[in-house]
Amino acid sequence: MGAEQKVAIVTGASQGIGEALVKGYRDRNFRVVASSRSIKPSSDPDILTVAGDIADPKTAERIVSQALERFGRIDTLVNNAGIFVAKPFTDYTDEDYANMLAINLNGFFHITRRAAKEMLKQGSGHIVQITTSLVDHANSSVPSVLASLTKGGLNAATKSLAIEFAGKGVRVNAVSPGIIKTPMHGPETHEFLAKLHPVGRMGEMRDIVDAVLYLEGASFVTGEILHVDGGQSAGH
């Protein structure tokens, strides 16, 4: 289609929530730039795959430059790539710390800075972070300081960028999930994980996709941390 067809970048797009987001945006007739370390080429001409480590600024540069070369614009960025390591605080290693900062924070910075420049040039755009409900609702059964440190930083950055860009046509939001049924969680853990949510079940990947797509169309919503967590952040 013509240049008016919108373009979304999705990081961490090879499996789980990221893969579901790619499908969700294609169902909305977006062209999609899908990136992860292990992503394979797509047979869909409206999906461009870019393999690489999001923690490397060169990967961010390739994603943005190839998006512009292939599709001519960038309308949405979904910062979905992230890692989660649940350990007691004193058991974390220097490597754990370096890896989580590299992917969860550095990866966000490198791709968002480049994509935002293009959005600001065109006077429109939408940036969404996928964070975690643990930022607002710490749980002694899931010790996860590094997740709160990094994803909490993304929540704070979301509000800051939303205000910085509010008068420039670019909206910035976050989706804060509870525990979602993805390949990361083996079936043997599901019963325990379901009980961590007041509604008594784990979330489905569709729940997160629906939330992101709601924000995509919500033109008066910016700076929002949308909790999709079965009531976790509200209490127990």
Instruction: Report the radius of gyration as a whole number of Å.
Output: 17 Å
CATH architecture: 3-Layer(aba) Sandwich
Question: Which secondary-structure class do the elements indicate?
Answer: alpha/beta
What is the end-to-end distance? 49 Å
* Total number of domains: 1
Determine the mean pLDDT. Answer: 95
> How many beta-strand elements?
7
- Portion of residues in helices? 40-55%
Task: Give the percentage of residues in beta strands.
Answer: 15-25%
| Basic shape | globular
Q: CATH topology, which one?
A: Rossmann fold
* CATH top-level class: Alpha Beta
**Which H/E pattern describes the elements?**
EHEEHEHEHEHHE
The H-level CATH homologous superfamily, spelled out, is: NAD(P)-binding Rossmann-like Domain
Main pleated-sheet profile: 7 strands, parallel
| Poorly predicted spans | none
Instruction: Give me the oligomer status.
Output: single chain
Individual helix count: 6
Order of strands, main sheet, comes to 3-2-1-4-5-6-7
Polypeptide structure, described:
Strand 1, helix 1 and strand 2 form a beta-alpha-beta unit. With 236 residues, the chain is α/β, with parallel strands linked by helices. It is built from six helices and seven strands, in the order βαββαβαβαβααβ. The radius of gyration is 17 Å and the shape is globular. The protein has one domain: NAD(P)-binding Rossmann-like Domain (Rossmann fold).
Offer a quick outline of the entry:
This protein has 236 residues and is of the alpha/beta class.
